[in-house]
Amino acid sequence: MMGSARAQRWLRVLGPLVIGVVFLGGWEWLVRARGIPPYVLPGPVAIAEALARDWPALSAALLVTLKITALALLIAASLGLLLAVVFAQSRILELSLFPYAVILQVTPIVAIAPLIIIWVDDVTLSLLICAWIVAFFPILSNTTVGLNSTDHNLLDLFRLYGATRWQVLWRLRLPTAMPFFLAGLRISGGLALIGAIVAEFVAGTGGRSSGLAYRILESGYQLQIPRMFAALVLISATGIGIFLALSLLSHLLLRRWHESAMGQGDRR
């Protein structure tokens, strides 16, 4: 069993790595064999060279996008958790306010981002609002479901022993909702990045405090396609990094007590 688990861990790392190397090698071979010019489709080598050459500008843009993404995710997580707790305590408030959260979710951010940017004078604040709108709903929805999924038998037991509403919330409802909240957080991490990028595209702001989306627009206008792909690589790598970091956080918080994070050996 230990050997099988170790083999699965290695396969989880080596499988995607081998496929990625084969894909990149095939891509580079296709570009060179067909003589495709870099302004049409650059190869991985040209993209890596552009990434190294333009790293100062791209890294500064990356930090701007990361700041917007992190702040939006933090606000979405805090407000989503708080509202979910309020909804769990009051069915009337949940039925009254939850539809408006759904409206925020189903309204395309591309459609309302221009209005937000017009209404809000501060560009950074407008980008933050756009990213928050996209990231907010999964946390609110998942946490609300988790709080409402508490075992009714355990609720009756807590009431039988005279537990207060605060004790029921802190010792029973919140631990039950924790896996749901963390699952929503992993989803919202990527959505916050997408919201920040879309808002940057709509804003189209330049200067030193510009994010990766503006660098993509700038590269497109100048036909610097390798640099455009380099910025796309940074966006993808950032999204993967956010997902892995939040997955690690979820594993560390749940590994000792929840089935979703426990290994097979721990379940015995």
Please give a structural write-up.
With 268 residues, the chain is mostly helical. It folds into two domains: 1-34; 53-267, MetI-like (MetI-like fold, Orthogonal Bundle), CATH 1.10.3720.10. The chain is built from ten helices and no strands. The protein has helices at residues 2-34, 44-53, 55-89, 91-106, 109-119, 123-148, 152-160, 165-203, 212-221, 225-254. Helix 5 (109-119) crosses helix 6 (123-148), helix 8 packs antiparallel against helix 10 and helix 9 packs antiparallel against helix 10 (225-254).
For the structure shown, list the relevant keywords:
268 residues; mainly alpha; 2 domains; 82% helix
What is this entry, summarized?
The chain is mainly α and 268 residues long. The chain is built from ten helices and no strands.
> Mean pLDDT across all residues, rounded?
87
Biggest beta sheet attributes: none
- The CATH class designation of the largest domain is Mainly Alpha
Query: Compute the gyration radius: what is it?
Result: 23 Å
CATH level 4 superfamily of the largest domain: MetI-like
